[in-house]
Structure formats: structure tokens, C-alpha cells
């Protein structure tokens, strides 16, 4: 008799024998097309089991979402002025890259003007955002770092807990849980039909992978050139500086 576990782990007959991404390599055993964006790419064999595949997929989705946020949201550090007997409470808002380099100084100036706050931009003299390679991370409040670590740890533990209940023998992606599914959809954007859900998952992972490559490129580009990415390649970013923020 056929071992049911081996049968579940083997690719279905409808799947290609060779990898879609690298046609001269065989499709990895556990990359069965179960998750969106699976093109059989695992040349180093990281996904050595179905459990490992699920954990790696969970990590990929998390990093992809963070990278997409980093490309779109604006980085702010705020100083809320208190009395002379109290130290200034320092905090930050969500991190981002190009938008922060475009608008950080202008927004800081306008907030100072209208609200008389003691704000200070976090960009350096060459319009680079704080990063591991650029430096400047010490300018961010420890309170914010603590909040970020606590939030990410809670999300990570939730993901680990969810994957433990994921049935490795169930090959249907329309199940109650799949990596990255936290039931968070306040605007009801997730389609109700299976085809729409698969399309949404594929779009998210493709945009996320591209964003991870872009953020990595930003980091090394600014480190090597010593210039902010919006200043070195303004054709891609300056059209965003519209209205009163010019």
C-alpha cells in the first residue's frame, strides 16, 4: 500500500515535473502549488518538510507586508514638549522610506509653525533616513523600539500558534487558516469566492517580494552613494512632492 503521508507530500500528477522558475531543475518535493506564488523555486532545499515550508511561508508573508509598508508609509519622529521639569517624550510613527525623505522636513516645519512643537527631522544632511547602514537609529526613541519589538513578538507568537493547528495533510488553500491569515480585513477587501481569494493572495505575495528587493536596494544604494534615494533618482520620486509640501 502507498504511504498516505508520502502521497500527500508528493506533487499531484497535474504539476509540472520541473520547476517553473528554473526549468532544468526538478520541482522541490514539498512545493506542490499549495500556496500562492509557488513556482517551484527552492534551489538550496530550505523547505525540507511540509512543516518547514509553512514556517518559511509565514516568515515570507510577514517580511513582505513590512516591506510594502516601508515603501509607502511616512517616517516621523515627534517630540512632545512638556514642562521644564519633565523630559521631552520622544516617539515615532510608522517607518517608511521614499515618502519620509520627501516630506519629513516639510511636515516637521509645518507642525512647528501651527502647533509650536519642538520637532526635529530624522533625516541626515544628505536626506537619508535612519537605517542599519546609514546610521541614525540612535535618534529614535527607545520607547518606540520597545513598542515595535513587543508588537512584532505578539504577531510572531500568534503566527507560530496558528501554524501548529494547520493540518499538513490538507492541500486545500481555501481552508480556515493559511500562512499570513490573521482574520484582519476591516474594509472587506478579501473576495468571498475561491478564485478571487487566490488572485488576492498571489497579488500580495508578488508585490511583497518586489518590495523586499526594493527596500534592500534602497539600503545599499544609499550606503554606497551617500545620498538619499529620492535625490539620486529624483525622476521616480519628485512627482510625488505636490501641493504645499513642495
* Run of helices and strands: HHEEHHHHH
- Strand neighbour order, sheet with most strands: 1-2
Question: Main beta sheet, described?
Answer: 2 strands, antiparallel
Task: Work out the radius of gyration.
Answer: 22 Å
- Number of helical runs? 7
Uncertain runs are: 1-12, 73-95, 168-175, 240-246
The overall average pLDDT, rounded, is: 74
Describe this structure in words.
This protein has 246 residues and is mainly alpha-helical. 45% of the residues lie in helices and 3% in strands. A two-stranded antiparallel sheet has the order 1-2. Strand 1 and strand 2 (89-92) form a beta hairpin. Helix 2 crosses helix 5. The longest helix is centred in the last third of the chain and has 32 residues, at 194-225. It is globular. It starts with a helix and ends in a 9-residue tail after the last helix. 19% of the residues are buried. Mean pLDDT is 74; it is low at 1-12, 73-95, 168-175 and 240-246.
Amino acid at each position: 500500500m502507498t504511504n498516505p503521508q508520502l502521497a500527500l507530500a508528493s506533487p499531484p500528477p497535474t504539476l509540472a515535473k520541473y520547476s517553473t522558475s528554473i526549468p532544468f531543475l526538478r520541482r522541490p518535493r514539498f512545493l506542490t502549488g499549495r500556496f500562492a506564488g509557488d513556482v517551484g523555486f527552492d534551489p538550496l532545499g530550505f523547505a525540507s518538510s511540509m512543516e518547514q515550508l509553512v514556517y518559511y511561508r509565514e516568515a515570507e508573508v510577514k517580511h513582505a507586508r513590512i516591506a510594502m509598508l516601508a515603501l509607502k508609509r511616512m517616517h516621523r519622529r515627534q517630540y512632545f514638549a512638556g514642562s521644564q521639569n519633565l523630559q521631552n517624550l520622544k516617539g515615532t510613527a510608522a517607518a517608511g522610506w521614499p515618502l519620509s525623505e520627501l516630506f519629513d522636513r516639510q511636515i516637521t516645519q509645518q507642525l512647528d509653525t501651527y502647533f509650536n512643537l519642538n520637532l526635529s527631522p530624522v533625516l541626515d544632511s544628505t536626506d537619508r533616513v535612519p537605517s542599519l547602514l546609514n546610521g541614525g537609529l540612535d535618534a529614535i526613541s527607545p520607547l518606540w523600539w520597545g513598542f515595535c519589538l513587543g508588537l512584532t513578538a505578539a504577531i510572531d507568537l500568534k503566527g507560530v500558534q496558528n501554524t501548529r493547528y494547520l493540518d499538513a495533510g490538507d492541500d486545500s488553500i481555501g481552508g480556515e487558516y493559511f500562512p499570513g491569515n490573521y482574520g484582519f480585513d476591516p474594509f472587506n477587501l478579501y473576495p468571498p469566492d475561491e478564485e478571487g481569494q487566490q488572485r488576492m493572495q498571489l497579488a500580495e505575495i508578488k508585490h511583497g517580494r518586489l518590495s523586499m528587493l526594493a527596500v534592500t536596494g534602497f539600503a545599499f544604494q544609499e550606503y554606497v552613494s551617500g545620498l538619499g534615494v529620492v535625490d539620486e533618482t529624483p525622476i521616480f520620486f519628485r512627482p510625488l512632492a505636490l501641493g504645499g509640501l513642495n
